[in-house]
Design goal:
Blueprint lengths: L1 E8 L6 E9 L4 E2 L2 E2 L4 E5 L1 H4 L6 E11 L6 E8 L12 E3 L7 E2 L9 E2 L1 H4 L1 E3 L2 E5 L6 E4 L3 E4 L4 E9 L5 E10 L2 E11 L6 E8 L6 E12 L2 E2 L6 E8 L8 E6 L7 H14 L4 E6 L12 E2 L8 E4 L3 E3 L12 H9 L5 E9 L6 E10 L7 E9 L11 E2 L15 H4 L4 E2 L7 E5 L5 E7 L2 E7 L18 E8 L12 E9 L4 E9 L6 H7 L7 E4 L5 E2 L5 E7 L4 E6 L1
Parallel strand pairs: 14-21, 22-23, 24-34
Antiparallel strand pairs: 1-6, 1-12, 2-5, 2-7, 3-4, 8-11, 9-10, 13-15, 15-18, 16-17, 16-19, 19-20, 19-21, 22-25, 25-26, 27-28, 28-35, 29-32, 29-36, 30-31, 33-34, 36-37, 38-39, 38-40, 40-41
Length: 567
């Protein structure tokens, strides 16, 4: 192929005095000035007039044939005036390909360096190519973790390697002793490395371990592919692929004016993700809070509101990593999509008629044999907590912030007073199994405190070795006879989390509602004629069409959860 020119991304020409496009064999600087070795050309801004759809186009005097070792193609901007556009003049797209974003500046970044990974974006520069291939594409594969004996959909990127767009591809795939051919239509523009996604159904793999998936694109736009395109990647198959339910621990309080963000964010996450969202709210901002959990923490709390996912990822419980709008879900999904090596399920019910003791039974199952240093931790939460006294009023710093928080579920606070009454608090931590492991000096709300850190899990709650596919049962009991925070015993939830005691991070978590004291569980197990519907789940939370051999978790339409074993 030949490089004919470039299309330089700019928001506005205002404040830019000069634009240069260039090609070079190596990125060099002499006396603080970029030194291109092949070609350099300037754009006359007086003749451009305006930006064309976000780009300025420049054509070199002669097309340049790309050598086997490749060529650097880039541009330089000279800024004469700082304004909204020129304060961030280098435009990019999401990506971390190190070859797609080198840059330097006269200050701060004075040498050439690949900065895509550290900054999280690739250059939006477009290179205009001629000659070369017309109908060409390659496959970009990513590894995938699969469960044996279960078909899966596999999706990969098709990258355009020609100067035409791609309207269709034909490809073959091979894995284990299985293979197939697929024709798929897609719409990829005439840009080099422009990507489009295609999918096909992988058959159920029978062997535990790594298997190579090979994909070859044979035809592009109905004609033979003009480049070699065979690609391979390892697929990892396990007999069990656990559902990952991140543990979300939010730190909040009634006297915290910004904490309504967390109230709304946590409630929205529960609506969005249902039983997959495992949330805990620790009221620890002020001792006058009627739900105060005391100055005990599982994470390093630097301000309120704050949330941790799996005691590892710190984020805002509404904004996520952004400064405006609801983005908590995006952070959660990133963590959720990480593979975890163990699944955990549980049951929870009152054991006495006075309903003061709760027995929680957990079932932890590893995807493969492991000797990881895992422990269990249990948390009890309460919903529907409310009160009429002044101590229940939620301090509100969001009053009037309708522009920043236009969401419907924010109106209680954005259109409310400086103190909002009648708030119903959810996911409130009322008890846990944690034991203190470290006392640290801390500053809370401007006052020095000695705070106990709790995050080690229960010693001996899991064996030192877990056998893949074999659940390990553990029992823990909460005594709530003297608990003054709980208001409704039909609004309690038990959470179990697997802690990696080497890193103190959470590996996986799950929760269930606490069942009131009743003989209903036994009756359901015995009386198959009861008019309740049942849903069956594996230990790792996957719903089944019917019970399978081994342990099954049964959830009934009237709210009961129990375990059955099929021989």
């Amino acid at each position: 192929m030949k490089v004919e020119g470039i299309r330089i991304p700019v928001s506005s020409l205002e404040g830019i005095s000069r634009i240069k496009g260039w090609m070079t064999e190596a990125l060099k600087v002499r006396n603080g000035v970029n030194v291109p070795s092949i070609e350099e050309d300037s754009v006359d801004l007086t003749t451009i007039g305006s930006v064309d759809n976000g780009y300025v186009e420049l054509h070199f005097a002669q097309p340049y044939t790309i050598p086997s070792q490749g060529v650097y193609v880039g541009y330089s901007l000279e800024i004469s005036e700082l304004n909204t556009a020129t304060s961030k003049p280098v435009l990019g797209v999401s990506g971390t390909d190190p070859e797609m974003s080198y840059f330097r500046s006269s200050r701060t970044y004075t040498s050439w360096k690949a900065r895509a990974v550290s900054l999280g974006f690739n250059s939006a520069l477009q290179v205009l190519l001629t000659d070369g291939h017309a109908n060409a594409a390659t496959a970009s594969l990513t590894t995938k973790i699969l469960q044996t004996n279960r078909p899966e959909t596999y999706t990969f990127n098709v990258l355009n390697k020609g100067y035409k767009g791609i309207s269709s591809v034909d490809f073959t795939w091979k894995v284990e002793d299985k293979q197939g051919t697929v024709h798929q239509n897609l719409a990829v523009g005439p840009y080099y490395n422009k990507a489009g996604q295609v999918s096909f159904e992988l058959p159920a793999l029978s062997t535990v371990g790594a298997d190579a998936l090979t994909v070859e694109i044979n035809k592009v736009n109905g004609v033979d592919n003009e480049v070699a395109s065979q690609a391979s990647v390892d697929l990892k198959a396990y007999s069990l692929v656990p559902v990952h339910r991140p543990l979300v621990e939010e730190y909040t309080g009634t006297k915290c004016g910004w904490c309504p963000r967390g109230l709304v964010g946590m409630a929205r996450m529960r609506k969005l993700y249902g039983d997959d969202f495992v949330g805990v709210s620790y009221h620890q901002y002020d001792e006058s809070d009627p739900m105060d959990f005391g100055y005990v923490y599982s994470n390093r709390v630097t301000g309120f509101p704050i949330a941790y996912l799996d005691r590892d990822v710190e984020t805002d419980p509404f904004l996520g990593f952004e400064t405006l709008g609801f983005h908590f879900d995006k952070v959660w999904e990133i963590v959720r999509d990480e593979f975890v090596p163990v699944g955990v399920d549980l049951t929870a019910s009152f054991t006495d008629e006075a309903q003061t003791e709760i027995e929680v039974r957990s079932f932890t199952t590893a995807a493969f044999d492991t000797t990881a240093n895992y422990r269990l931790t249990y948390i009890l939460t309460a919903d529907s907590l409310s009160g009429t006294g002044s101590e229940w009023g939620q301090v509100n710093s969001l009053a009037g912030a309708t522009t920043s928080y236009p969401d419907e579920d924010m109106k209680m606070f954005t259109e409310g007073a400086d103190v909002v009454n009648g708030v119903e608090y959810m996911d409130v931590a009322v008890a846990w199994s944690e034991e203190p492991i470290e006392q640290v000096e801390y500053t809370v709300n401007g006052s020095p405190q000695k705070i106990w850190i709790h995050n080690a899990g229960i010693e001996g709650s899991l064996p030192s070795s877990l056998v893949g596919g074999q659940p390990v049962e553990h029992t823990y009991k909460f005594n709530i006879a003297d608990n003054k925070v709980i208001q409704r015993k039909d609004k309690l939830y038990a959470i179990v989390a697997v802690v990696d005691n080497d890193t103190r991070k959470i590996v996986n978590a799950n929760f269930v509602p606490v069942q009131l004291y009743t003989t209903g569980i036994k009756d359901i197990q015995k009386d198959e004629t009861m008019t309740v519907s049942k849903r069956y789940y594996t230990i790792d939370g996957k719903q089944l069409a019917q019970p399978q051999k081994g342990i099954n978790i049964v959830r009934t339409s009237d709210g009961h959860t129990f375990k059955v074993v099929v021989e």
